[in-house]
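Lecture notes, part 5. Sequence design as translation. It can be helpful to think of inverse folding as translation between two languages: the language of shapes and the language of residues. The source text, in structure tokens, appears below.
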């Protein structure tokens, strides 16, 4: 065939391809995705809106509730901004019960009263780091003239009650750092680290170091060494508020990681323990062990009343918290936020009340509450089910708010778009915004549940590439 004739035949095809509308491209790309072997037994949903008008550009299965994974954080963030305000800050106070004698003896207890701050002791913010917080407390204690304590340090976590883990979370998750529960007195993002090493001699795994040291926690090591290249298949099984941790699974030889991060079972106790231990090291002794308001109540002992506050700590602003909440997908922050939303609205600060408050908030703004099957704040629960249409509506409405600039900045960059990702077992999703080279602005939510195999995100991105 002459080259000129071949070129003539191919030219119309290329023109047709370039001339396809975004709707046509999405239709073709999504149809291809649904025909993939990985989605043979899956349910997938896509909702794309014109970001300027809110009009549906393309939607398929948009009214089917699906497990959201961490894309739920886009809804939690938007609600928190609206209810709490972008400048909201959590407060934690340090005070004491009883009186201080002339020789500097506190006849009472030091009491750390948690205000639900998820950043207390966090390494993400300079002012919140553990050493900085402990030093501020030590300075306040010295300034109050306390040199000895006839009593101990109490961590008061009562603002969030005794249930730290939301209903619907699974056993395999809750002992690991990403499944840490939300305490009224959270400390160091409620996690600690275990350094691990696989041994060739007997295929065992050694706990080289625990950081920080956890002398009050019994760690039962049931790990076995994994083959070269198998990496980290370790799970920590730690019931909330327990003092026994089980490590199960395998740790591969020549693992590039140092170890794993596990969830603190009792953050309020750990905060009290660290302060009391710090005081002991500088010569300020206590006569009884560190404890918490929960433990005292469980033993039918009264929690002492604070007679004098000596220090108040403020968290970073909500905008700063949400930045990390979405950028690094910190589940803990989401669970704090939903409880705080409930508290702010005058309800008991529980996950259930917070989740229902989120649903009520968006129902008042025109979204069908039955499209918002929300039971946690982070999306870690596979029982949370939201339609892509409802999530897209939240994202569209968020653009009109004064806090939108901070909200938008918190979304990660994925596939050249501003998209929050979400991943739990057999669930992968993305939600956010995209502005094309031609200037078209879109709100995007795509979600697939019950897919098989791995590497599904590349195929999701191919669908979204139809907008480019």
């Amino acid at each position: 065939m002459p080259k000129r004739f071949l070129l003539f035949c191919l030219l119309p095809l290329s023109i047709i391809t370039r001339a396809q509308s975004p709707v046509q491209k999405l239709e073709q790309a999504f149809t291809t995705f649904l025909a993939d072997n990985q989605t043979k037994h899956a349910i997938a949903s896509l909702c794309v809106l014109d970001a300027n008008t809110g009009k549906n550009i393309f939607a398929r299965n948009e009214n089917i509730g699906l497990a959201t994974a961490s894309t739920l954080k886009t809804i939690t963030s938007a609600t928190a901004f609206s209810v709490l305000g972008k400048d909201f800050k959590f407060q934690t106070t340090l005070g004491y019960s009883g009186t201080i004698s002339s020789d500097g003896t506190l006849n009472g207890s030091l009491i750390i009263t948690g205000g639900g701050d998820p950043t207390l002791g966090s390494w993400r913010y300079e002012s919140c780091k553990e050493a900085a917080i402990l030093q501020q407390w030590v300075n306040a204690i010295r300034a109050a003239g306390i040199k000895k304590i006839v009593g101990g340090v109490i961590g008061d976590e009562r603002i969030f009650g005794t249930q730290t883990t939301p209903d619907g979370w699974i056993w395999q998750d809750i002992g690991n750092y990403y499944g840490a529960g939300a305490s009224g007195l959270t400390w160091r993002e409620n996690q600690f680290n275990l350094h691990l090493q696989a041994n060739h001699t007997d295929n065992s795994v050694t706990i080289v170091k625990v950081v920080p040291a956890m002398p009050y926690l019994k760690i039962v090591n049931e790990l076995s060494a994994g083959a070269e290249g198998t990496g980290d298949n370790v799970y920590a099984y730690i019931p909330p508020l327990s003092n026994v941790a089980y490590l199960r699974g395998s740790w591969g030889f020549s693992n590039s990681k140092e170890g794993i991060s596990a969830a603190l079972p009792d953050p309020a106790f750990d905060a009290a323990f660290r302060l009391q231990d710090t005081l002991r090291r500088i010569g300020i002794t206590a006569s009884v062990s560190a404890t918490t308001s929960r433990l005292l109540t469980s033993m039918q002992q009264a929690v002492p009343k604070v007679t004098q506050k000596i220090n108040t700590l403020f968290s970073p602003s909500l905008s700063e918290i949400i930045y990390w909440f979405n950028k690094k997908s910190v589940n803990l922050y989401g669970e704090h936020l939903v409880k705080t939303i409930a508290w702010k609205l005058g309800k008991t600060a529980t996950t259930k009340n917070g989740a229902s408050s989120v649903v009520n908030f968006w129902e008042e703004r025109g979204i069908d509450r039955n499209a918002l099957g929300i039971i946690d704040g982070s999306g870690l629960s596979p029982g949370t089910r939201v339609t892509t249409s409802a999530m897209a509506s939240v994202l569209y409405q968020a653009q009109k708010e004064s806090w939108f600039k901070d909200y938008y900045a918190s979304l990660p960059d994925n596939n050249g778009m501003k998209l929050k990702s979400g991943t739990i077992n057999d669930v992968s999703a993305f939600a956010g915004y995209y502005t094309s080279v031609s200037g078209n602005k879109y709100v995007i939510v795509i979600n697939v549940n019950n897919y098989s195999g791995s590497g599904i995100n590349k195929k999701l991105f191919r669908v979204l590439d139809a907008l480019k």
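The translated text above is only one of many valid answers, since several sequences can fold into similar shapes. Residues 5-11, 13-17 have pLDDT under 50 and may be disordered.
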